[in-house]
Write a structure and sequence with these properties.
Strand content of chain B: 35-45%
Strand order of the largest sheet of chain A: 1-2-4-5-6-3
Radius of gyration of chain A: 15 Å
Distance between the termini of chain B: 20 Å
Order of helices and strands of chain B: HHHEEHEEEE
Shape of chain B: globular
Number of helices of chain B: 4
Largest sheet of chain A: 6 strands, antiparallel
Number of strands of chain A: 6
Oligomer: heterodimer
Helix content of chain B: 25-40%
Structural class of chain B: alpha+beta
Largest sheet of chain B: 6 strands, antiparallel
Radius of gyration of chain B: 15 Å
Chain lengths: 150, 140
Amino acid sequence: MTEPSSITTAKRTAVSGPERHIPFLDKIGMRRVRVGGGEAVVTLELQPDLLNNHGGGHGGVVMTLLDSAMANAALSRIDFTREVVTIDMHIGFMRPASGRLEATGRATGGGRSVCFCEAAVTDATGEIVAKAMGTFRYRAPAAPADDRSP
Amino acid sequence: MDRPMDEADMDGYRVFARMPFMQLLGVRREFSHEGRARLVIDPRPELENPTQAMHGGVVATLVDVVMASAAVSKIGFTRTAVTLNLNTAYLQPGHGRLTADGEVLDTCGDIVQCQAIVTDDSGCTVARAIGSFKYLDRLT
């Protein structure tokens, strides 16, 4: 898994697996650069509508990147055989975000049902913008909407 | 606040409506007053995760903004606030309209501690958060 994820019709309809479609991440223009072996890198170019009133990248955008990097890292640890949900996430915001952002997530521990992760967001100069620790829970892969047990 | 809001304070109050990312998400502010604030967001397919619930990044955004809004309302919008630290616990998937309530817990100099809770229309708690913010002077 080294190619950037791009959106095709087939991928758009995928509900599970590494190429599953995540509407909100599409909306903000996030791309996955690589994922595998418990590590993931995602990237995003800040656009005007992703900014806050200080002209920096909104904290919500930064947190979304961190969440996604960690979730992908957690999923790659089990080869995307199941889905993950975030249980909790702790973020420290170190400096204003600008330009192209890159988040690297790493699975640092856990077992069959829970995964602990860390992630950091850097800007184009390599400075750390924010760091995160997160706890994720593995769950059954998502079924198509019309194919769910009650 | 021991004085009425002046034009600069009103401008601080209106910052929320101008924030690009809030417009992108379609977040509405119901109130922001004396250390408490409430935001509401309606579900849209483009805000979802693969399980058709609100994406965790959207929920994190809600708690961040509602706490910052509560923080600046505490000082009558005379200054702005930046997030230092944010801890969010996700308790239930967010389905339907979500309401975020934020309040100031304590202030110490420039630092303000807040908490937030996100609920759905059935009253179920979707997420809880605690955050620390720093007051900054507004850019003039």
